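Q: I'm teaching a short session on how sequence maps to structure, and I want students to see two examples side by side rather than one. Could you give me a first protein with its sequence written out and its structure tokens following it? Keep the formatting plain so it prints cleanly on a handout.
A: Of course. Example one:
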Amino acid sequence: MQQHDRKLLFDEKKIAGDIEKVAKAICSDFSKDDLAEIAFLGIQLKGLPFARRIVESIKKSSNLEIPLGKLDISMYRDDIGMRKTLPQIHETDIPFDINNRTIILVDDVLHTGRTIRAALDAMSDYGRPAMIKLAVLVDRGMREFPIQADYVGEKHKVSGTEHISVSWKELEGIDAVYLSQKKTGV
């Protein structure tokens, strides 16, 4: 999508504030001992920068080393055979045991819930967490699955013809959240 086809919703400063908001909410939900036992899984590709920054924020405030892994859900999607192109596969790297551990699953945008459903399926191949919590930068509404985030940076309801996308410095060179019209016929 071309640059002029989208509208800036949130800039770098707003995103940084939302990261702090989510990190503080997570810290307030757990005692220091329990916080030391949680681990984060960033959904590839766009959930990983958000997860890294939450972990960094928690480390700054608590001085705890929180484990971080990355999860690719490409082969768990329910539309894999319906797309015109094959999905790009990214690395899954979970350098900790997820069994009986509280996992904070992290993604950039929560929309239909299908990505999170795929992530839950993918995680089950690696073990059985004691609890899974969900953190997202933007909740745009319009669920198709009964999935809700435990930690949300921003709620921004949009119509079915609109799309929310997140750009991260690590991936696109800028931190920004954009609103655009969905392309038709895709």
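Q: Perfect. Now a second example for contrast.
A: Example two:
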Amino acid sequence: MTSDEQTPRIVSASREIAASAEKIFALIADPSRQPAWDGNNNLAEAEAGQRIKAVGEVFTMRLRMGSIRENHVVDFEEERRIAWKPAEVGKEPPGHLWRWELQPLGSSRTLVTHTYDWSELTDPNRLPRARATTPEKLRASLDRLAAAAEGS
């Protein structure tokens, strides 16, 4: 068995956050807020005014290495679920996906699950970075997201 066959291609992490699903989702669905809590330290900035509202939308993000990504929204339910597939500008997504799922546990507590799915990734140049995206890195995003949601 190769290391690729042994590496899980879908990784996730979950945690309870002491904030409403509405407040947490507002942070996730606004790309300009994402670099502040990105646990992968991959995101540099996104222009304001790109608040995600539906499947089919595309928002852009500048990565720390300087390139731009177009993120194609493939799943969306306000305050519950959002997922997107990143791609180079003008190209089709190569097959990896970021997902956020929110489950309200009351008016001021929410279970948040963050998932990275690279099961359909076909670009061999992206495989090392995909393999390096661990549950711990997803948990770092959740922890930073919690700090932002609980602190404001």
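Q: What should students look for in example two?
A: Point them to this: The domain at 8-151 is CATH 3.30.530.20 (Alpha-D-Glucose-1,6-Bisphosphate; Chain A, domain 4). Also worth mentioning: The chain has one domain: 8-151.
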